Amino acid sequence: MGPVNRPLDLQWLEDLLALAETGNFSRAAQSRSMAQPAFSRHIRALEEWAGLELVDRARHPASATPAGEVLLLAARDVVLKLTQARTQAHQAYEQASRSLQFAATHVLSLAFFPAWLQKIEQQLQLGPIHMTSDSFEACEDLMLQRRVQFLLCYGHPAVRTRLLEPAFKYVCVSTDWLLPVAAPDAAGGARHAISPKVSQPLPLLAYSAQSALGQIMQSEMKDVGDSARYTPVITSHHAVLLKTMALEGRGIAWLPQSLVSAEMADGRLVAAGAEAASVPVEIRLFRATALLPQAAEAVWSQVKAFET
Q: Which of 16, 93, 94, 115 has the most CB atoms lying inside 10 A of its own CB?
């Protein structure tokens, strides 16, 4: 008898273990809740797979052959490990169903998410939370790959997004403002201030054209692209970097109010233009329209409740 090239059924190993424990085909079949002929076929199929006789049927009680003893030892280990793995897999699934996966753009993960999450936690008892902070495009990728449940980002008609209906939907959870700010001069005014009369272009700390905030600025503040009024000195999609440069007096930047409220309160940054130069932006929470785990659906329901 040689081994047969056929799939191994885990049930056959469990049958062999039952036979080794009872020493009797009839009692083993009964313990496995099957008819004896079917049980015997399973043992024979396992022997065909191994290419060896595994059970000495001439002995009473029935016992394993030397080859069968080797396979029994491995079968106990395999069945035990797979049973443990199944339990752990269920535990992992339960853990995942209770966990929440967020992605947020850099600014919102720092300046908005903590307080917003605390507001939700006042209404819901949340499980583990995983937050990924990245660029808007990278966060979109995570949503498209279904690796996160929610995306927190800035929204505006000018911002191009791949998270389109009917596969995705969003709710506006708050509003932020892009404020023109600069470091103060010795008198406390803006070192670089917007003025109708421009003697020389203002140094501009600009967003890259690919960034969401850059797209908003291009749409709402077209004169920022006027070289007679502004000269870009640093361009980046990181608002936090532009804030650092503004604090060092390197130029004027349109920064989210949520990001610079502390610096404006203590005077390290000051308004560099009139209120009309500020740009309102939505803060949006995206999700897939497909059903989410229970914990995530509870968060969405609570967010919708805040809306009403």
A: 16
